[in-house]
Structures are given as structure tokens and as C-alpha cells.
Design goal:
Layout: H1 9-23, H2 29-39, H3 44-69, H4 73-93, H5 107-116, H6 119-128, H7 134-153, H8 155-199
Helix pairs in contact: 1-6, 1-7, 2-8, 3-5, 3-6, 3-7, 4-6, 4-8
Protein name: UPF0056 membrane protein
Subcellular location: Cell membrane
InterPro entries: Multi_antbiot-R_MarC
């Protein structure tokens, strides 16, 4: 099948890791537990599928929106690199990203959006298109969707087992990974913009 022509295991793993770090579902376990206490049992499947669908739809529709407003993918990727950079700094420095907990249906809002498929995640997914094939990003999203489902299903158990100290360490480790990725994303796309400008 043509859709699998661009398949790359390395790109799938990288896409998964980048999105996993941005989504930070493990770091959100305390928020999820709090929402469960407030709204009752969260529908893990509904939340995960909705979040995955939002990411995949934006992956394709987002680019059309960019073309409509006259912004190229490289420019958007650079903007995305800045967003990822800020998120990474927040994770490393221990500054909490503002996530609303006011909602009527916690499974969709705020868990599916914006906790999982938030602005940072959507920007990151679209930014990855500047370097990776669509199929690899989609597989990365699907893997994250499955992981989100598993975490939502076992949120209370995870909070008891992992502990605050481990959560903090994981947050900082993924923050450093994100920081490196944001710099790579910026330099690669900035170089492409300069090349396009010179050729133009």
C-alpha cells in the first residue's frame, strides 16, 4: 500500500516520544485522579479515542488552514519549536502548565481536550510533518492514544505506585528531551526557510 511507503520505525519511535513528552500523561495523573473524584468515573476509551481523533484530524486539516492564511509548514514548524521550547522549560523548571479542570463532561473536556490534545500537542503534531512522513506521525499518535487509554484506566493505581518524586524526575527527563528536539526542529526548518528565500 502506498500509504506505508514512507514507513520508518525510527520516525515512528521519535514521533511517539515527542508527542508522549508534550502530552505528559504520566505527569497529569494527579489531575486525572482529581477529576475522577470530582466528576466520577472517567470513560478512558471515549477520552483516548476523542484525543487521538482530534490530533489526526488536525494533522491534515491544520495544513490546509495554514495554506488558507498563507503560512508555510516551515514557518509553522518554527513557531511550534518555540511552543515546545517553552513547554520544555516549564517541565524542567517545575512550572505547572495551566490546565483547566472546569468541565461538565470530564472525559472529553478537559481530558481529551486540552489535557491530551491541547495546543502544544496539536502544534507539535503539525510541526512534525515538516520532517516526518504522515504514516509515521499517525502511528505515533495511535501509540500515544493507546498509552493514554491505559494510563486513564489505571490512574489511581499509578499515582500510588509511582509517587510524586518519580513523577517529578520523569517530567524533568522528558523536558530535557523536548528541549533538544525543539532546538533541532528550529534549526532544520530555519535552514530550509533561508534556503527557500535564497532560491526565491
Amino acid at each position: 500500500m502506498e500509504i506505508f511507503d514512507g514507513f520508518s520505525f525510527k520516525e515512528v519511535v521519535t514521533s511517539f516520544m515527542v508527542l508522549f513528552a508534550v502530552i505528559d500523561i504520566i505527569g497529569s495523573v494527579p489531575i486525572i485522579v482529581s477529576l475522577q473524584q470530582k466528576f466520577g468515573q472517567i470513560e478512558a476509551g471515549k477520552a483516548a479515542i476523542t484525543a487521538g481523533a482530534i490530533m489526526i484530524v488536525f494533522l491534515f486539516v491544520g495544513n490546509k488552514i495554514l495554506k488558507l492564511i498563507g503560512v508555510d509548514v516551515n514557518s509553522f514548524a518554527i513557531a511550534g519549536a518555540f511552543v515546545i521550547f517553552v513547554i520544555a522549560l516549564e517541565m524542567i523548571l517545575g512550572i505547572e502548565i495551566n490546565k483547566t479542570t472546569e468541565a461538565k463532561a470530564a472525559s472529553i473536556v478537559p481530558i481529551a481536550f486540552p489535557l491530551v490534545a491541547g495546543a502544544g500537542t496539536l502544534t507539535t503534531a503539525l510541526s512534525l510533518r515538516a520532517e516526518f512522513h504522515d504514516i509515521n506521525i499517525i502511528l505515533g499518535i495511535v501509540l500515544n492514544t493507546i498509552f493514554v487509554y491505559l494510563v486513564l484506566k489505571s490512574a489511581k493505581w499509578l499515582e500510588r505506585k509511582i509517587g510524586d518524586a518519580t513523577l517529578m524526575i520523569l517530567q524533568k527527563v522528558f523536558g530535557i528531551i523536548l528541549l533538544a528536539i525543539s532546538i533541532k526542529l528550529f534549526t532544520a526548518n530555519f535552514a530550509q526557510l533561508v534556503q527557500n528565500y535564497i532560491n526565491f
